[in-house]
């Protein structure tokens, strides 16, 4: 029996399908970043005065969602005279440009300058530019020259002066205090 010969067009079509040409190394998704930056810095002003300076080791900007995702985050808050109010560092974060909300995550550390020299540690916090409030729904610890404390969650201003805590525990230097219902074991 003699093999059938395929028509030339069928052979060429098969060869064309087998060779794909140059294919992209990555397929772009509908949510791919519009900009990718190494070493990002952004100044945020309030009434023309520098209020916040945002830095990141890497950043991905999504213009349609008006969101910037960042790694290696550092945020510095300033008062109206240009003095540092506090500095927040985190492993990662996202900034929503429309609302002015910053979401910091992973090894979040907030420090305040002297004379208090406070250090707050948590895993998650939010800064809302509209209300000028920092909040967290995650446990935290706080140390300063005035005392030490911890709690389940908190809200404060960027100066960490008006501090409200849920399920707080701590001691104030020199005086010592315990909140009702939070007596030390054995007392």
Sheet of most strands: 12 strands, antiparallel
Quantity of strands, as a count: 12
What overall geometry do the principal axes of the alpha carbons give? globular
* Content-based structural category: mainly beta
- Helix percentage range: under 10%
CATH fold naming of the domain at 33-133: lipopolysaccharide transport protein A fold
Low-confidence segments, given as residue ranges, are 5-30, 175-187
Report the top-level CATH class of the domain at 33-133.
Mainly Beta
Q: What is the average of the pLDDT values?
A: 79
Q: Beta-sheet strand percentage?
A: over 45%
Cα end-to-end separation: 102 Å
Lay out the secondary structure:
Blueprint: H1 8-18, E1 35-46, E2 49-62, E3 67-78, E4 84-96, E5 101-111, E6 119-128, E7 133-136, E8 140-143, E9 147-151, E10 153-156, E11 164-166, E12 169-172
Antiparallel strand pairs: 1-2, 2-3, 3-4, 4-5, 5-6, 6-7, 6-8, 7-10, 8-9, 9-12, 10-11
Characteristic key phrases:
187 residues; mainly beta; lipopolysaccharide transport protein A fold; 12-stranded antiparallel sheet; 1 helix; 12 strands; 51% strand; globular; disordered C terminus
Provide an overview of this structure.
- The protein is mostly beta strands.
- It is built from 1 helix and 12 strands.
- The protein has one helix at 8-18, and strands spanning 35-46, 49-62, 67-78, 84-96, 101-111, 119-128, 133-136, 140-143, 147-151, 153-156, 164-166, 169-172.
- Strands 1, 2, 3, 4, 5, 6, 7, 8, 9, 10, 11 and 12 form a 12-stranded antiparallel beta sheet that branches.
- A hairpin with a 3-residue loop joins strand 8 (140-143) and strand 9.
- The longest helix has 11 residues, at 8-18.
- It starts with 7 loop residues before the first helix and ends in a 15-residue tail after the last strand.
